[in-house]
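Dear support,

I submitted the protein below through the web form. The confirmation email said the job was done, but the results page showed an empty box. After a refresh the structure appeared. I'm attaching both so you can tell me whether what I see now is the final result or a partial one.
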Amino acid sequence: MRSAAARKKSALAVTATALLAIAAPLLTSTGASAASVSTWDKVAQCEASGNWSINTGNGYYGGLQISMSTWRAFGGTQYASRPDQATKQQQILTGEKILAGQGQGAWPSCGPAAGLGADHANPYPTAPSYPDPASLPAGTLVKSPNGAAVKVMISGAGIPVAASDVTPDHYDLSKIVLVDNAAFNGLPSSPPAGTVVHDQAGGANRYVIIDGAALSISAADWTADGYNVRPDMGVPTAWLASATQRTVTTGRVVMDQSGTDPARYVMLNGAAVHISASEWSANGYDSRSLMGVPGDWLHATAAKQVANGTIVKEVSGADPTVYVMAGGVAVPLTYADFTGLGYDKRPLEGAPGEWLKSAAAKAAPADGTMLLSPEGNTVWQVTAGKKRAMTEAEFGPGKYSFNDVVSVPTAFTAKLPTVV
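What the results page shows now:
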C-alpha cells in the first residue's frame, strides 16, 4: 500500500489531473497505457493485499486504493459511490483512466513494482464481432475460432465437412467465415424437413431430407411430386452417404407427396405401417405432423418388415398385449416373456391396431429369420414356414451374426414344424 507521505506528495498532481479529466475525454485508456488484469492484480496485492473491497478508513478505497476525489474525477461514480463498492473490473477500468492520465506514478511504489508502466495489454479487450451463421448464404463454409471443424451452411443448418469432402466437393477453405463458438456448436446438423439435396461432388441422384434422413427421389417422383420446383442444395458427400442410411423417426406420419395415394402411414423402425381410416382419428394420428415423402420411396418402405426385435403394442391401448416382431410376425409375449427375455429394457412402440392384428395372424416368419427360445441354446432358422437347427459354424465374421437372432417364447418355435 502507498505510504501517507507518498499520497500527500501526489495530491496536487491528482487534483490537477482530475480537472483535466473533467475538461477533456482524452483520458480514456489507450493501448499505450493499458495493463493486463494480472498486472492490476499485482498492484492490488501490493496496495491492499489483494482485497478489492477494502475500506480501512484511511481515505483510500478498494484494491487500487483510490481516493474519492480521484474516483469522481475519472468517472468511477458511474459504477459505484466509492471504489470499494465497485467490482474488480470496474475498479480496473477506472484505474486504466488514471494510468492514462498520471502514469504508473499514481501508485508511486506499487505501480513500478508491478511493472504497470511496461505492460500495455488491454485488460478487457472487446470480443470480436462475428456474423450470425444463419444469415449467411447457402454454401458458406464456417468454423469456430476455437476449433478445426468446418461446416457448410445449408438452409440454416451447419452440415459437417469431412476432410475427404474438400477436394471432390470443391470446397475452398480459403473462404471460411469465422462465427461465434456457441453459435457454431448450436447449429442444426441437418437441413429442415423437405429440403432437396444432392451430392456436392456431382451425380444425378436427388434426395429429400426428412428427420435427418435422406430419402431417394425417383425420376418419376421428381416432377410428379413437385420436387423439381424446390431449391436443390449440394451437401457434403460423407454426410449424404450417412444420411441415406438413416431412418425416418418412429412415430412420424407420412403420405405420398403427390397425393395420388390417399393412404396414410406411420413410421415404425424403418418400415411404413398403414393406418386404417377408422384409426386415423380414433388413435390420434390426425393430430400429428403429416409429412409428404416420395411416392416410390414410400411404397418400397411400406413393403418392408418392421425391424426384428421391435417391441410393439396397440397404440389405442385397447389390447394390452405386448408383441415382439420376428420376420414380419408380431409374436405375443406374456409378462414373464417380456421381462425374462429382456424386452422390458427396449422402447415400447405404439402401432395401428388393424396392422398389428394382421401381423399377429401370420403363420410363420419370413424365410431366413433366426429364432432362439429360452428352453435351449439352439438357434432356429425359418425356411418355407419350417425351422431348421443352425450350427455354430454358421456364425462369425462374414457369416450370420448372433445380433440378428430374435428371442421368442418357446411356444412360438414349438408350433413351427422342424425340417426333416
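Response: this is the final, complete result; the empty box was a page-load delay. The chain has a mean pLDDT of 91.
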